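Shall we go through a protein fold together, starting from nothing but its sequence? Label the sequence line and the structure token line clearly, so we can match residues to local backbone shapes. Would you write everything just below, so we can both look at the same thing?
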Amino acid sequence: MTAAVQWPASVRYQDATNVAPGGLGFVQDLLNTASQGKPRQPDLLEAVATAQEWLDLSLAVVNGIDPDCAPEPKTVTLDARGLRSLRSLRDRIRTALTATTAEDGPASVALPPVETTAAVRLDSDGARLRPRGKGVELVRSYALIQLTAASYADTMRRLKVCANPRCRGAFYDRSKNCSRIWHDVATCGNAQNVRVYRARLKARAVAPSSD
């Protein structure tokens, strides 16, 4: 049996059954660098040092999965500007996923696009997109290539953000009908349902009588 992939950010919140396949797992891991969970985990992109440590570890993992395409570990050196760009990439991908997986459908307002450059290589193994750029741009290029591939494979819709506003963890929905909205039904789902139930009881208590 193949050992489960241990992504450095995602492993803090979930087991291997919620992890996206292949390089898409890197995008999920980027999203899960955020502060979330109970007890609350720190934001791995809070400072350059912790962000660099995460990036080196995550790129090492993705190189074991996708060595022909992924940026090599320790080839992207972050500074304050690069860290801001990496946070922005994380936030914009999260916003896009939240909008497309919302219970009430896609957002009605247009989201600003996230753009990058990529190279196409054709050889005896076929055609393949490869990331381009330096620094965080190389990371952005790889992440968007993975999202593009997932879109064509119709698996991007399975990469979701937990509907619990106190969690917002990224997870991969492996259910047959792709209907999950909770990162963990036993924790996030039950907690959110209890809050909704209590809110309904409170609303009933303060509602004027019809008599």
Summary: The mean pLDDT is 83.
